[in-house]
Every structure is written in structure tokens, then in C-alpha cells.
Amino acid sequence: MGVRPDHRPVAFFDVDETLLADKSMVSFWRHWRTVWQGAGATGDRDGELRTAGADRCALNRAYYRRFAGVPAHVVRAATHRWYDTYRRRPDAFVAAGLEAVRRHRRAGHEVVLVSGSLRPVVERVAEDVGADEVCCTRQLVSEDGVLTGEVDRPMIGRFKAEAVAAVLAGRGVPAARCYAYGDHDSDLQMLRSVGNAVVVGGSPALRREARRCGWPVLSARPGPLMATGDHHVPAGVNQ
User: What is the CATH number of the domain that holds 46?
Assistant: First the structure.
């Protein structure tokens, strides 16, 4: 007997500056510079690449190339240490984003995080907020457990929209019944791929699009994690 499709609406959330108040890749890089010899050789103090004219997919790939040659378990442990400290801050999360997750969970909707950030970070955020699955950039690992510096695909722009489409196809859920939350114009394709788009804070370009389309705009005011209900390990985090 086949698996019955799950027709619950799905709410897709970007992570950085939609749920987390910071850019996690930048914040983690500052921490990484203090724990890994050679991390400072890039000359970039905060990890936010400033390659003129490069698109965000290219920047995402360039960020992960910095970890080439590092054992994957070392990066995972470092991300956990960073996040353990970060999540305790009173301004670590976006209050309206967290409340939106709570509303969807109370309504019985599935929650999926879609992010270009480091997978171990996104997994921890998913566990904290009670998300069901994550779709994020996956670093490639050699046979001896070392990061190659390459990724399968940067979970940015059109790749976010493709991930959303794949999730919905797998569950048999109409896109018109689903939701997406984002803060940057690079989230536009994901936002347009569902029936209910919501902007959190938002870049000027995204806010203009929200006004044009009649999308709600939520405050990006930061706040603490607080309680989000029963925590569980999301089904998709170890796939």
C-alpha cells in the first residue's frame, strides 16, 4: 500500500533576518576566525564577501569555498558552539517570524525552513522553532570526511523556488494553499511560487513588490527565542 499524500498546507520560511535577527553566515564567520587557524587569511573580518557584480548564488559558493580542507565534524562542532551562545541572546530572533511559525504550527500546517546558510545552523534553528524539514545549502564532503569547498547547490534565488516546488510535489499540496516568508529580493522567486507571500522587514525592492502585490509586511523587530512548543528533531534534517 503506497504512502498517502500529506495535503496539509506548508509554510516556508527563509532563516536569516526572517527568523534569526542576524545574518548567521556572517555571525558564524566572526566566531570561526577565532577558532580555526588560517581563517583570517581571507582578509575579510566579518565573512560578508564584497565581490562587485557577483550575484548571491556566486557569493554563497564563494563563502563555502573558504572551508575547503577542514574536517566536516570540526565545522559542525563550531556551528553548534556558536549557536548555543547566539540563541540565548535577547535579540537573537525576529519576533514576528517566530510568532508566524507558532501560528502555522497551531493551525496544523507543516513548517519548512529554506536557507542558504550552513546546514548545522539551520538544523538547530529548525529544532528550536519546531520546523518539520529543512532545505539548505549542502557542503560536499570527501571520502575521508573533509570539506571540499564545493556545495551541491546554493539555496538562493531560483534554487529556493525549486526546493519549494519539490516539497509540494512530494506532498501533493497545491501551491495556492501554501505560504512563504522572506526578507530579501533574492527570496522573490520563492515568495511568488506560493499563494500566500509574506515579507518580514524587507529590502527596499522587496517592500516595493509587497506593496504592488498586496503582500503583508511584518516587523523585523528582534526578540528572544522563548518557548515555541514541544521541540523535536525535524524529519528532514539528516537526509
Answer: 3.40.50.1000
